[in-house]
Amino acid sequence: xxxxxxxxxxxxxxxxxxxxxxxxxxxxxxSRAPSSIIEAIRRLSALVRPNxxxxxxxxxxxxxxxxxxxxxxxLLRQLLDAAERPAVRVIEGLAAALLAxxxxxxxxxxVGEVTVALVCERIVADLRRRVFQHLHRLEWSFHLNHSxxxxxxxxxxxxxxxxxxxxxxxxxxxxxxxxxxxxxxxxIGLNARLGALTLITWPIAAGMGHLFATKAQRAGxxxxxxxxAASDIVEESLSGVLTVKSFNGADCEFDRYRSAVDxxxxxxxxxxxxxxxxxxxxxxxFGSAAILLFWWGGLELNAARITPGVxxxxxYYSAFVGSAAxxxxxxxxxxxxxxESTGIVFATLNVEPTIVDRKHPTRPRxxxxxxxxxxxxxxxxxxxYALAEVSLSLASRSLVAIVGRSGSGKxxxxxxxxxxxxxxxxxxxxxxxxxxxxALESLRQHVVxxxxxxxxxxxxxxxxxxxxxxxxSDAEVRAAARAASAHxxxxxxxDAYDTQIGSGARRLSRGEQQRIALARALVRDPGILVLDExxxxxxxxxxxxxxxxxxxxxxxxxxxxxxxxxxxxxxAELIIVLDAGVIRETGTHQELIERGCYYRALVEAGAGGADxxxxxxxxxxx
Length: 622
Known about the structure:
By secondary structure, the chain is of the alpha/beta class.
């Protein structure tokens, strides 16, 4: 039999090719995100459209506030010029008009900005809900190819950037544009020469603003990527804190995080420098214009060609021009940064899910548990297949075991059975119906997958068991827990089924978590129960408890078991041996041992850990 064992060692390992194929699929969203400002404005406008009435009301308030602001220097001019000719009633009237204008401006600004804030918050809340819902509609392979840190950055930092851009775009851009144009026009109307001195700075400011904004956009992209990388490290480190402590990896994790934070710091500092540089440059340019205006205005006043009121009004309008232009330059930089964020968010929303319901899908109420795979192949890329030409028939209420080396395609096969992915070729049928013709909601009730590391949510034990299921009574929940050998351990908890489980269920052992996950699957009463290495990380006692559950449940449903523990599958009605994406053998334990090929080589390779019955079977046949 040593010959067969040596043959097993020569079976080609598909892991390297599959890893390369999977990595070829990874196409970061950022690389697909357009960064055109025009496209960003179009998309931001589309976000505003459902709130068009509120937006128009806010815009009207802010435009009126801007017009009120433009009247202030004119009133000041008349007030100062009237002071040269004593007329108490005129002065009092102008002062009252000025006070009334400022009050009206304050009220209009408050109403407009509060409405804009409401619109922005509503848009951002809706956008976050859309993105979150869309991420859960996307197939499993999408989440394999994008880190959780990247997706968290989209929901957090990227949408926050859009929120800032929306606020600036809606709150200040319109009003600042009106203030800029109106102030320039009124300044020229007061005195053409003074107006010309102010306007000559516009081309310089515009050129500097474009330069800084372009650099700020690139710096903003670096900042978002650095933030996502740091978030990834935090998530990995804290979720794997037990491994960190077990291997004295705290210093290593700190070095990783320190390096990521250093990059985040550098990116943030660079963006901050660019922003402050733009502000300082704007102040210098428009401050110089104000000095020129005062110099020229002083000469004009000395020559009695203008009045003091005209000079003060001109100064105010010059200040308005500088402030409005500076704000518009900042908004331009903000919009450039938002262009990339908008592209990333909408590139995510534009990813079309491939695992979707067909038109008018069937919704079977029950399933007998019969499944047939007809010439099923699944390829990560055109030439690299994880599975090739797989044909199988799973009988109702049978125990089916899938074995094979790591990377042989076992997890891919059960993912296809659960329709987490669709085959590249061939079809899979449940009770004679193509899985693609069954509504996903219904399919998830009839084919349930229990992974190796199930997720236990924060909340009560009861909530975890009924998670995602159709309405289940307390009796059904308790029956499912009993079937999963979880009822007694739940009753031993402080509040039984109402016991709150902390985030990550760290207070539960792996075996307890797995039994609660199994109860979650059984409460749906599925026709097919799929366990993908569900006992791989359990101790022998917990593993034995799970297999006792499976022995009881095999008469009620079809059970598909992926395992490396061959000692536990000797009673399976069908054992499927996979290697490099191909079915090498199928049969019962005794049939495969007598055949003396791949399965027997797997048995003998792990004979040291096999039970006496397995070892004796292999010895007698040889």
